[in-house]
Amino acid sequence: MTGSPTESRPSKILKTQGHTDQDKEDKQLQDLSMSKNPRIQRYLVAIEYIGTRFSGSQQQPNCRTVVGVLEEAFHKFIGQPVSIFCSSRTDAGVHALSNVCHVDVERISKRKPGEVLPPHEPSVVRRAVNHFLQKNEGDISVIDVRCVPNDFHARFKAQERTYFYRLVSGSEPLSTFEKERAWHVPEKLDLNAMQEACKVLVGHHDFSSFRAAGCQANSPIRTLDELHVCEVPATPYFPSITEREQNNSSLKDSHTCSVKPEVELPINSFSNANDMVDTNNGKSNLEEFGIRRRHRSYVVTARARSFLYHQVRLLVGVLKCVGTGELTTSDVERILNAKTVTAASPMAAACGLYLGRVKYDLP
Asked: Alphabetically, which GO biological process terms does the record hold (predicted)?
């Protein structure tokens, strides 16, 4: 029968095989890159980026990717093509406070082709590559560069990865400044309930329920070293008048001069945000026009040596449902023990996820 589930399986097998071949290719390239060519310098490069306009981190045909843009910038800098290898793959829309990659560079003189010059200092690489990156949308920057041995691989040498996920809660429309930077949850979130649910999920488990289809990891067993949720100040944050006065009074020699207005206006203040609007009649308690009602902001932190495909977003999806009261801690235990992704809640949006740090034991 045409279109039956049985006939559709070969395409999935081909897709799986493609991912497996990519992993094999990465390892083969790692072996090839371990040559002892003294003319080549390997650099470990830390980058930050806003993932909104990227179709993920890995190179893809006819798509704007993190690796593609970075390789282009290096090409313009050194005058020859390079290959970039990332420590962690991020999906379209996912951001990075610090993703790490490595690149091999052979410095050839542009004035005398064929003449090999001493490697560039890391600070020179950082400034030069950023110069070209800023001419390309400006949504990616190099934040650190270090020379490493030519057998150091950004992906396989990583010891730990930390992800952050931002949620904003509130019935008001999402602020323009938060668009594509956080997941907007209209409902109120119960922080204590979410923290209790984290205790169920942290540790060494079979995370099959938090493993998206297409994951090519050999085993669903992972050790989640940290899963934590906390409330943080809304962003962008600007100090209230009270905070500014407290700061000025703590300075011995204040160089500021200001006149205190009759009414204090807490601008984007975390502690005073909920006092700015009377929830009974919707009017401002301060009778001031043009002050936005702020959302409550939360950050989920997940830390482990490695993660399964979409694991963090699936974890956050369940925590969000606990926060809204759709699930209980017992439900979280049931989902974990079910060992199937169909038992989990819909995963969180990509826009709230940030790769925060990749840890190494650097030489």
From this structure: tRNA pseudouridine synthesis
Give dist(CA 279, CA 184) in Å, integer.
20
Whether the CB-CB separation of 312 and 224 falls below 8 Å is answered with no
Q: Which of 23, 26, 91, 139 is catalytic?
A: 91
Q: Are residues 304 and 223 in the same domain?
A: yes
Tokens found for residue 113: 């082709």
Q: What is the Cα 199 distance to its own chain's centre?
A: 23
The residue whose two tokens read 């329920």 is 209
Nearest to 227 by CA among 354, 325, 319, 332: 319
Residues 47 and 175 in one domain: no
Amino acid at position 22, single letter? Q
Structural domain boundaries enclosing 208:
160-234+295-359
Q: What's the whole-number mean pLDDT along residues 281-295?
A: 66
Q: Is the pLDDT of residue 27 over 80?
A: no
Rounded to an integer, what distance in angstroms lies between the CA atom of residue 139 and that of residue 90? 15
Our answer to whether residue 139 is catalytic in this structure is: no
What is the phi/psi pair of residue 45, to 5°? -120, 125
